[in-house]
Amino acid sequence: MNKFTQLKTFTILKVLVLSVTLMMIHGTVSGGDKHADGDSHEDDKHAGEVITMSDETAVQNGITTTNVIAGDIALSTTLYGRISADPASLSHIRARFDGVIKDVKVNIGDTVKKGDILAVVESNESLKSYSITSPFDGNVIARHANNGELSNGQVLFSLANYKNVWAQLTVFSQHLGKIKVGQAVDLRHANFEQLSEIAYLTPSADGSPHSLANVTVDNNSGYWPLGTLVKAQVTTATKAVSHMVPVTAVQEYEDKQVVFVNHDNEYKPRPVQLGVTDGRFIEVISGIEIGERVVATNSYLIKADLEKSEAGHDH
Length: 315
Fold this sequence. Notes:
By secondary structure, the protein is α+β, with helices and mostly antiparallel strands. The protein is built from three helices and 21 strands.
């Protein structure tokens, strides 16, 4: 074999070896980038993220789960207002017949029952004494009567019963078309909440360019004092949704909105697309199916464990 033939053979062998090497490299890369079904690893790079937790540990940490369900989401309008007295529960009491106040039985702050004697007055005309009594259960909030004074037609006592009060909500023109009598109202202030409904609508008493939605409030607890600023969610419509979960189930994880799906003591993050919410439940447009169980309370603990695990892998 001459030198030309040797060189030609060597060159062909180099080309063959290089081709085989490239094919092997290409096969390795392709196989690493695809699942058996052809899906990209990049699309499922977090599929292995999972927290394993026993039922006992979940209970100890207050972690509960619930099924994904269909239902109705309340669509609401936010209004603001103040707590005011019920006009029917406020009374300014005068003497029926003018005369001398002989005996005052109550003072400011006293609690009285309907029919209790507030004061005794001696009539100027008959010179006979008669009693002024409470027209309802309530509290004495003002007193303008002392022994020996003349009644002279003035207000002697003011009584109020604040067990029932009103929330007067401001309704501006852009909301007037939505707000109706009978609509459900979720009232809140501080850490207190109460469900009620709109009893009636009135124009503003001072001529301001808005109306007032008047909502009855049970104040037996005393948690709704007069003048308190309140926030109200008024249910103006409902939307039937095919999938919904509690708002507390949703967390932001790795720049996505996720819920944590539970199966056999394993908790996995599942990205979801969200829709409308009523503050308690939220619509899930895609990402989960009816009947799947998701973490409903303390889902942030699952998120924290996953983030801790991720941090550990980074080192």
